[in-house]
Write a structure and sequence with these properties.
The complex is a heterodimer.
Chain A (H helix, E strand, L loop, with lengths): L2 H11 L3 H8 L5 H14 L2 H15 L4 H17 L5 H15 L3 H17 L3 H9 L8 H17 L3 H18 L2 H15 L1 E7 L2 E6 H9 L3 E4 L4 E4 L2 E4 L4 H13 L3 E3 H9 L6 H17 L4 E5 L3 E6 L5 E5 L7 H7 L7 H8 L3 H13 L3 E4 L6 E4 L19
Parallel strand pairs in A: 3-9
Antiparallel strand pairs in A: 1-2, 1-9, 3-4, 4-5, 6-8, 7-8, 10-11
Chain B lengths: L1 E4 L2 E5 L10 E4 L4 E4 L4 E4 L6 E5 L7 E3 L3 E6 L2 E6 L5 E6 L6 E7 L2 E6 L4 E5 L6 E6 L4 E7 L2 E8 L2 E7 L6 E6 L8 E4 L4 E5 L6 E5 L8
Parallel strand pairs in B: 1-18
Antiparallel strand pairs in B: 2-21, 3-4, 4-5, 5-6, 7-8, 8-9, 9-10, 11-12, 12-13, 13-14, 15-16, 16-17, 17-18, 19-20, 20-21
Classes of the chains: A alpha+beta, B mainly beta.
Protein name (chain A): HTH domain-containing protein
Organism (chain A): Roseibium salinum
Pfam family, one (chain B): DUF6923
Chain lengths: 406, 215
């Protein structure tokens, strides 16, 4: 590295982006462009930061693959914060492989951590966990260690495993303290709050109550038969019968659970499961078919008996029946769940994360916006959506500045 | 042109609190190395740090027998090695793109990193007397018994190369092992090179070819 690059990198590492810019503002060589990009990112101008990093990537070119890969990792981190999960995120894997091959353990580990964050964000928990497990944690820059533990906490929370989530948050708090960066401490606090906040509503014979994650976990571990509307499944102990792809069956199961230990009337089942206004003979025939299917699906956990009025749920071993609902019931809970990270999402990123069409997401967003649950800013391709709720996901921008130019 | 592997005799560091070594010099007893905000003086026999000077030290370091020279941002400073006082400064020829500094026979020799150049500079005025072109990024320059050597570091590969100071022709190349960068170069005047190890935070000793092995 040359003298001004050294001086600028030192300023950046000390958290003085303006001092760094002062030294390289007029230079357009590749390392200077990269450092200007990192400085702009620290100053919060992510759009400009991204342009500069792209220019740096081009300027380094194929003859300096390692420096180029570092710029791509930095660009991917910005893309992640902007929730642009397209092309820049796809480059991440190639960049990580390149850095690993050239022995740049620090930046390779940072790239792996970013990828784990991306995977968690789009709900690929197994892949996210594999990525975290494979990381060279010793090589991780101190500033991304807190984020690493927050990703681990996020995976545990989504899997409803409270103890590991708590342990990971403690580790994150320790890592954040060691860096002394206040924004990291704030993020760890947010994750703690998310862990303590109501994660679900339980309704059963004893009425309705809001449960934090730890109690959700306890309920799931109990011997109750649970109709889980958070994940659209019927479960008891270790047996989980997913009905995500069979919404009619799930709706029937839910009505039957609400009626338990009594029975549910045919009319109620028809109205709730099919949206039928009245029950004619063809509806009754369809109900018989769907009840037959539900009976087969949930056979390991419960039977279904016909009654005079309709049908009744009969758990096999479970002592009680309960329904687990999201803390707030919403038609578009899955969209809100993604926006709950507090970041600004594009509708296309949401569609990608949810595996549905852009039109479907757009309809959901419009409905949520009408209800005052989300808001948007920007226009056209730059339009972003945010929830009005508190986030719980690492958002920090902590590019490992001094090592970018090698 | 002869290619040979560089023989690393010894490695000092990584030193606590040192993120990168940006320049190296030798005053006959101590190895001076630049680490951003400081100049550090190392006893090459014991490996102990003997002195610290609080001067900005972003790139190349040199010694003229009396004074230290140190590149800081866009200037080359002349420094009293006893007190750390800055005696004077001249503009660096690369205007901040400078990397590598050596003293020889009344001139300063300055590497210009990505431009792959080496300038011979008047130490009083900063006037560029001559410019050589290298094939690779220049990260350190030194003279040893009439031979002119410079370090390179590009695309994650480093070497030490001897060039003809008149024509720039490459006469010999010592390839550094993979993952071993050279961010500064100085000789002890005889059989050893001292090399800055960049962000590894180390200083390495490399045997000069044609001299007997020693530890």
């Amino acid at each position: 590295m040359d003298s001004l690059i050294t001086a600028a990198a030192r300023a950046l590492a000390a958290g003085e982006p303006l001092a760094a810019l002062k030294r390289v503002a007029l230079r357009d060589d590749a390392p200077a462009l990269a450092l200007r990009g990192l400085a702009m990112a620290q100053l919060g101008d992510l759009a400009r930061a991204r342009e500069l990093l792209r220019a740096a990537t081009r300027a380094f070119g194929p003859k300096e693959p390692v420096a180029r890969a570092r710029c791509q990792v930095a660009e991917a981190e910005i893309a992640l914060v902007l929730r642009d999960l397209g092309r820049p995120m796809q480059m991440l894997d190639t960049a990580r492989t390149m850095l690993e091959a050239h022995g740049d353990r620090t930046n390779a580990a940072h790239a792996g951590y970013l990828d784990a964050r991306r995977l968690l964000l789009i709900g690929r928990l197994d892949q996210a966990e594999r990525m975290l497990d494979g990381l060279d944690t010793d090589a991780l820059p101190p500033t991304s260690r807190a984020g690493y533990w927050l990703v681990a906490a996020g995976i545990a929370m989504r899997r409803i495993r409270t103890q590991p989530a708590k342990a990971a948050i403690d580790q994150a708090a320790r890592a954040a303290r060691e860096t002394g960066i206040p924004s990291l401490a704030v993020e760890v606090d947010r994750a703690s709050q998310a862990l303590a906040a109501p994660a679900a509503r339980l309704t059963g014979r004893n009425g309705e109550q809001l449960l934090p994650l730890a109690e959700v976990e306890a309920v799931l571990a109990s011997d109750a038969l649970i109709v889980d509307a958070c994940r659209n499944a019927v479960r008891a102990g270790p047996t989980v019968i997913p009905l995500v792809s069979r919404p009619v069956l799930f709706a029937l199961a839910r009505v039957l659970a609400e009626a338990w230990p009594g029975d549910a009337a045919r009319e109620t089942l028809l109205i709730r499961a099919f949206g039928a206004r009245h029950a004619d003979e063809s509806h009754r025939a369809r109900l018989r078919v769907e009840i037959g299917r539900l009976r087969v699906a949930i056979r390991p956990l419960a039977g279904l008996t016909a009654t005079k009025r309709g049908f009744a749920l009969e758990p096999r071993d479970a002592g009680s029946v309960a329904i687990l609902l999201p803390p707030e019931e919403d038609d578009h809970a899955e969209v809100l769940a993604l926006l709950a990270d507090g970041e600004a999402w594009s509708s296309s990123a949401l569609a990608l994360a949810l595996g549905v069409s852009s039109r479907t997401v757009q309809r959901a967003l419009d409905a949520l916006a009408e209800g005052g649950k989300v808001e948007s800013f920007g226009r056209g391709r730059a339009c972003r959506w945010i929830a009005r709720k508190e986030p719980g996901f690492p958002t920090s921008l902590l590019l490992p500045a001094p090592t970018i130019t090698g | 042109m002869k290619h040979a592997p560089a023989e690393i005799l010894r490695e000092y560091g990584p030193f606590p609190g040192v993120d990168g070594v940006h320049g190296v010099s030798f005053d006959g007893n101590l190895v001076w190395f630049a680490t951003g905000e400081r100049l550090n003086a190392l006893d090459p026999e014991t490996g102990e740090t003997m002195r610290l000077l609080d001067v900005t030290a972003d790139a190349g370091t040199a010694f003229d027998g009396t004074y230290l020279y140190q590149i800081a941002e866009t200037v080359i400073r002349k420094i009293d090695r006893e007190t750390g006082d800055v005696i004077g400064s001249i503009p660096a020829p690369g205007n901040g793109g400078d990397s590598g500094l050596a003293w020889a026979e009344g001139s300063l020799w300055v590497g210009q990193h990505r431009d792959r150049k080496i300038h011979q500079v008047d130490p009083e005025t900063g006037e560029v007397l001559r410019t050589l072109q290298s094939e690779r990024f220049v990260t350190g320059v030194t003279w040893i018994e009439g031979e002119f050597w410079h370090g390179t570091w590009q695309d994650d590969q480093s070497d030490l190369r001897r060039i003809d100071p008149q024509t720039g022709e490459v006469l010999a190349i010592l390839d550094m092992p993979p993952g071993t960068g050279v961010s500064g170069l100085e000789s002890d005047g005889r059989g050893r090179f001292f090399c800055g190890g960049g962000n590894s935070g180390t200083v390495r000793v490399v045997r000069r070819p044609g001299t007997p092995p020693r530890s």
